[in-house]
Amino acid sequence: DTEVTQTPKHLVMGMTNKKSLKCEQHMGHRAMYWYKQKAKKPPELMFVYSYEKLSINESVPSRFSPECPNSSLLNLHLHALQPEDSALYLCASSQDQGPYNEQFFGPGTRLTVL
Amino acid sequence: SQQGEEDPQALSIQEGENATMNCSYKTSINNLQWYRQNSGRGLVHLILIRSNEREKHSGRLRVTLDTSKKSSSLLITASRAADTASYFCATDAGYLQGGSEKLVFGKGTKLTVNP
Prior knowledge:
The structure holds two protein chains of two kinds.
Chain A: E1 4-7, E2 10-13, E3 18-25, E4 31-37, E5 44-50, E6 53-56, E7 64-70, E8 73-79, E9 87-94, E10 104-105, E11 109-113
Parallel strand pairs in A: 2-11
Antiparallel strand pairs in A: 1-3, 3-8, 4-5, 4-9, 5-6, 7-8, 9-10, 9-11
Chain B: E1 4-7, E2 10-14, E3 19-25, E4 31-37, E5 43-50, E6 55-58, E7 61-66, E8 71-76, E9 85-95, E10 101-105, E11 109-114
Parallel strand pairs in B: 2-11
Antiparallel strand pairs in B: 1-3, 3-8, 4-5, 4-9, 6-7, 7-8, 9-10, 9-11
């Protein structure tokens, strides 16, 4: 299985809602990533879990909260989002963390915040 | 912050022609990767070239790296309509809080191959 799956495909939420995005891989990869991609822009790295240890892009606001229940699963908890958070959220995984590892991406969750 | 800048931003060619995309970056790197993204979908890894390599091939793809000029190029030969996508270069660019390395993507080139 060489696939990264993400659910849901689409999500519409209000600014007071709490929701979660989910990501799963069964390739035995030990690094997993969350990216945010606005329209016509490149993906921007938000968080990395490497061997279930978290690294954070300091520019990401605290209304985004990642969780890694085990090495195959990755969640992104969303709370009190703003309309400017509307974007495509991409999950990726790699064998290991580091510059020589290719990343495998899921299809993304398209998030709209009203 | 963006490390890579692709050029051109958009490229439109006919099927069968070659497509060349360029990427320039600012700081020294360990490697450079190229990814493809079909409209609104996830990214697909194409090729990785290490800083001590000058050229790499994979099928119809040819990547070059010139570390003295801090630039890379991606050549797609004999293009097909299915090659229509956005192409991004990505380089390692420092560390996140927590110690993991940061992969930074360039702005991308939108390639359209007309049948």
